[in-house]
Write a structure and sequence with these properties.
By secondary structure, this protein is an alpha/beta fold. It has 11 helices and 11 strands. It is globular and about 55 Å long.
Length: about 375
């Protein structure tokens, strides 16, 4: 059990829902809204709203305030939209489109990092790609941010993969989008979800996974695949015991976001996470990582369902981007091996950014290779 506690502490610090802790956590926060079962893509206009107002759409309460952690661009138009996934959960997104754009545009859906919200990294990526000529959306995954779904703060390899496919549903029916030119970008844990979505959704014509985590692998095996079968068993025992407690209490224990205060002996990558999620650089009140974290028991489904099982069968182009010094680099390297192990290896790329750590690819615009990403999508979506 001592080893289990150590594993739990490291995973919680690393912002993963694979935390195995049985200690008390912050009570569940208030839900951001209920899902609507209409199943129809809905676009919401906020032109008549004033800064700071909120609007209701499909049962969600969406803020009209520019509350991103990055400045607003004067080169793109921005508005809130909502759409539904196959499970009837309503997702909230920010839509960015180039100003004065005409005709049908190539489009990109963006999400991640794991435990972040669209006001953080994914929105930054989406806005910059819109400046470069794409219509983009950055969305909050199910159960998080401004999106619907109850209970709050649940992660699911199936539902979160579906979230990307639902974003493609939405983009496919927009009048100013070419449905044959849709790509996706997944950041951190949503990089693995993006690759998984590309394996099942043939409408996705190109995929970028930036600073990727394979959440199913980390949940089952721990960092660098150090967990044994006994470790996994002990984790299952702890998490299933927590399920009983959650049901008894009528609430869901949270695994905790970034540790605060930061221990002096924290690993370098935990310090990097703290610098992003807990400081002015990237803190956001709706971000799980900035606050109470995921439901502790979310990792049960991740442990049992490998995400990249059919990655070798992806026929469309995939670009993996990772930092040379990132603790998570091995996820992209392994994914690249999987992607290139089949008959469709020629259009797969792995780009290593010299000197970069994991969180550099969250928001460091002088390090994130946007020129390469733009060229990749323009070539793939031509």
């Amino acid at each position: 059990m001592k080893k289990l506690g150590l594993i739990a502490a490291v995973l919680a610090l690393a912002l993963l829902c694979a935390a195995c802790a049985t200690n008390a956590a912050t009570p569940q926060s208030e839900p951001s809204g209920e899902a609507d079962a209409a199943g129809v893509a809905v676009e919401t206009a906020d032109a008549d709203l004033q800064e700071g107002d909120t609007m209701m759409s499909d049962g969600l309460t969406l803020t009209n305030e520019w509350d991103k952690v990055f400045p607003q661009s004067d080169k793109v138009n921005h508005r809130k939209v909502t759409f539904h996934n196959r499970y009837g959960i309503t997702l909230a997104a920010d839509l960015y489109e180039p100003k004065d754009a005409e005709g049908k545009l190539p489009a990109i859906a963006v999400s991640g990092p794991f435990g972040a919200v669209k006001e953080q990294s994914s929105g930054l990526y989406a806005q910059i790609m819109a400046e470069r000529g794409f219509l983009t959306i950055a969305f909050d995954p199910s159960y998080t941010g401004e999106s619907g779904g109850e209970p709050r703060y649940v992660a699911s390899p199936d539902i979160n993969t579906e979230d990307f496919c639902a974003a493609v549903d939405f983009l496919s029916v927009q009048d100013n989008v070419d449905p044959e030119k849709i790509g996706i970008i997944g950041i951190c844990g949503w990089g693995g979800m993006a690759v998984n979505a590309a394996a099942i959704d043939t409408r996705i014509k190109a995929t970028v996974a930036s600073t990727m985590y394979d959440m199913s692998r980390i949940a089952a095996n721990g960092y660098f695949d150090a967990n044994t079968e006994d470790d996994r068993y002990n984790t299952r025992v702890a998490l299933n015991a927590q399920r009983t407690e959650d049901y008894k209490n009528g609430t869901y224990q949270l695994a905790g976001g970034v540790v605060d205060p930061l221990p002096d002996d924290a690993p370098f990558f935990v310090k990097d996470y703290y610098d992003y999620y807990k400081t002015e650089r990237g803190y956001h009140p709706r971000s799980l990582n900035s606050n109470g974290g995921w439901n502790t028991t979310s990792s049960l489904s991740l442990m049992n369902m490998p995400l990249l099982s059919y990655a070798s069968e992806i026929r469309s182009p995939v670009l993996l981007i990772h930092g040379e010094k990132a603790h998570s680099r091995y996820f992209s390297e392994s994914a690249y091996e999987k992607l290139t192990s089949g008959a469709y290896a020629d259009n797969k790329e792995l780009m290593i950014i010299p000197g970069a750590v994991h969180t550099d690819l969250y928001d460091q615009t002088d390090i994130i290779p946007f020129d390469k990403i733009e060229t990749f999508f323009k070539d793939a979506l031509n």
